[in-house]
Amino acid sequence: MNTPPRRLLIATDLSRMNEAFLATVADLTRGFPGQLILLHVSNIAEFAEIQDETGMAFDQYMESIRSRLQDMVERLFAPGMPARIEVLPDDSVAHGILAAADRVGADMIVMGTHGRTGLSRLVLGSVAEAVLRRAAVPVLVVPLAVVEPRQARIDIAARAT
After folding, report:
1. Cβ-count burial 34-63 (b if 16+ within 10 Å, e if not)
2. How many C-beta atoms lie closer than 10 Å to residue 111's C-beta?
3. Mean pLDDT of the chain
């Protein structure tokens, strides 16, 4: 890649480390002259479990995720940062990320990883690994160890309020 990326696809899983991951990405992209696309791919099977527990309609669920991400963008990213939110359903999170990257013309994918190893990775699979193996653009993976200390500070601050 000879030119800096103009369009970053930031894939987020809304896990417990999500806010720290996005805050880290916000720091890395401060002053970034391009466009950010924040993406959450909702695994359809996981939605079925949520629907069973909450009775929430699919459209309502997707809008709640979109709203949550929009709130985080407004709190964490620089004012005026061109960012768009996409929330998509897919049977495979990795496939959804790769398809979205292709569709929006992303120059780079940014995502976190839980850093699972051994049996848990074998059983659960690895979205980050699948994306890394099949992506047509560079992939920046932010490891859990980078965001864990930041998340701990966020958790402490939340408890103090």
Report:
1. ebbbbbbbbbeeeeeeeeeeeeeeeeebbe
2. 24
3. 82
Q: Classify residue 138: in a domain, yes or no.
A: yes
Q: Which domain holds residue 100?
A: 7-160
In a domain, 2, yes or no: no
Let me know if residue 65 belongs to a domain. Answer: yes
Q: What is the mean pLDDT of residues 34-57?
A: 86
| Mean pLDDT calculated for residue range 24-51 | 85
* DSSP class per residue in 13-67: ---TTHHHHHHHHHHHHTT--SEEEEEEEEEHHHHHHHHHHH---HHHHHHHHHH
Among the residue ranges 2-6, 37-41, 42-46, 87-91, the one predicted with the least confidence is: 2-6
User: CA-CA distances (angstroms) from residue 122 to 41, 64, 146?
Assistant: 21, 31, 23
> What is d(CA 120, CA 111) in angstroms, rounded to the nearest whole number?
19
Q: Tell me the CATH number at 119.
A: 3.40.50.620
pLDDT at 114 over 80: no
